[in-house]
Amino acid sequence: MRQEFNDKAMENLEITNKLLLEMVKNQKSSNKNLVKLFMVTIICYTVLLIAMVAGFFIYESQFDVVQGQYETYEYNQEAEGEGIEFNNGDVYKDSSTYNDNRGD
Predict the structure, then answer these.
(1) Could you tell me if 76 and 99 are in contact, meaning their C-beta atoms sit under 8 angstroms apart?
(2) Where are the domains of the chain?
(3) H or E stretch covering 76
């Protein structure tokens, strides 16, 4: 009876070891597949980013950059009194005259 128990225990140990070895092999292949999937994802995102940057440059290249075609205006501002403030052509804290030399 004791021998039969030891034989059964040894058989169970062998089965457990085989199952563990098979599980480790499956885990290794699963990890390899996960790494491959991760690398493919990174490569796809990199290609997508490069395509987006290239597309942006191609889109922007169809427009001409215009420089030096600006109109300039000259303004004369006069005011009397203390504490007068000029702010973008507006005069505060006093009555003033505004002379526009654009010719309108």
Answers:
(1) yes
(2) 1-66, 71-104
(3) strand 75-79
Rounded CA-CA distance 10/17 in Å is 10
Whole-prediction pTM: 0.44
Residues 16-44: b if buried by 16+ CB within 10 A, e if exposed: eeeeeeeeeeeeeeeeeeeeeeeeeeeee
Dihedral, CA atoms, 14, 18, 19, 21, nearest 10 degrees?
140
Q: Are 96 and 86 a contacting pair, CB within 8 Å?
A: no
Distance CA 104, CA 101 (A): 8
What is the band of 84 on the pLDDT scale with cuts at 50, 70, 90? low
Instruction: Please report, for residues 11, 24, 26, 33, 92, the alpha-carbon distance to residue 19 in angstroms, rounded to integers and kept in the order given.
Output: 12, 9, 10, 21, 90
Tokens of 38: 């991760």
